[in-house]
Amino acid sequence: MQFIVTGGSGFIGSNFVRQALARPEVKRLINIDALTYAGSRTSLTSIEADPRYRFVQADITDAAAIEKILVEETVLAEKPLDAVINFAAESHVDRSIHTPEDFIHTNVFGTAILLGRARHHGVKRFLQISTDEVYGSLGAEGKFSETTPLHPNSPYSASKAGADLLVLAAYHTYGQDVVITRCSNNYGPYQFPEKLIPLMILSALQDRPLPIYGDGLQVRDWIHVEDHCEAVWQVLTRGHSGEVYNVGADAELTNISLVHEILKQLDKPESLITHVTDRLGHDRRYAIDSSKIHRELGWQPKWQQQEGLVATIQWYLEHQEWWRPLLAGGKFS
């Protein structure tokens, strides 16, 4: 297989790139990443020398740059590429509240550029990496299925829902081979420290206050990033065209319970927890019904929540050379 990954230097993208290049059937992988604040080439140091791998610093909203890359790689492959996998996105809800235009530009316009260029060059499949946040918020019971109506509640989730609709429109209008994955909250190695789990780990390690929105009883469905990446591979290679696949690990946990567990594992006092004003439009609960991907593709998560969290904490303890420069450079607050 020969394909393009966009956003391959970010958290989920970099984990997918490493897992993909461990597969012998991958003959060529092109990583397109703009290297904005949350992307880092150091996340892929281990595979930089792989002759099958090419990195290109480019923005998915730059149509000329995307065109140039597709022309070059199609000529090199002597046939259309097998896929474009779009991980590239502005993804932090807090930031979307303050600068929604950036999210619309990258997540909607950028996806439109990629879809059009991929279609023009005969790319066989377009895989859109989306989020369960497009469904909105749940009450105390129930789960999101692929048929749940879209009801995004933040500029971020609205931009991702818009991108999803463009992808599905390309299938119905042009007959383009597309698939979409919508995943629950990821955690694991190389996650940028503005997200909940790494932010809590690193703050606790430095004995800094751990800010918790509101009462901390918001519920999220957590999945280890390696399980998510395996699900993406299964959808890429075996998913049915025009379909959406939810990806989750049935691991619901309140934010405050998660933080208590992190403090316990690090032997830090709960007095570090600081409750702050809740975020605007904060969704109360997410939960994913993954029965479709289990049934149709046989995918199952391998990581248990407790062992995954312990392994993630250990990774941050052992890889301070990765995250300390981010703190020193003031890249997150």
In terms of per-residue confidence, which ranges show pLDDT below 50 for 5 or more consecutive residues? none
Q: How many DSSP H or I helices?
A: 11
Radius of gyration: 19 Å
CATH superfamily: NAD(P)-binding Rossmann-like Domain
Overall mean pLDDT score? 95
Q: What name is given to the CATH topology?
A: Rossmann fold
The level-1 CATH class: Alpha Beta
Classification by helices and strands: alpha/beta
Strand order in the largest sheet: 3-2-1-4-5-6-10
Give the CA-CA distance, first to last residue.
40 Å
Fraction of residues in helix: 40-55%
**SSE string:** EHEEHEHHEHEEHEEHEEHEHHH
> How many DSSP E strands?
12
| Molecular shape | globular
CATH architecture annotation: 3-Layer(aba) Sandwich
Q: What percentage of amino acids are in beta strands? A: 15-25%
Question: What kind of sheet is the major sheet?
Answer: 7 strands, parallel
Q: Quick recap of the structure?
A:
With 333 residues, this protein is of the alpha/beta class.
Report on the structure:
The protein is of the alpha/beta class. The chain has a single domain (2-191, 222-249, 284-302), classed as NAD(P)-binding Rossmann-like Domain (Rossmann fold). The chain is 42% helix and 17% strand. β5, α5 (155-174) and β6 form a beta-alpha-beta unit. The longest helix has 21 residues, at 100-120. It is globular and about 60 Å long. The mean pLDDT is 95.
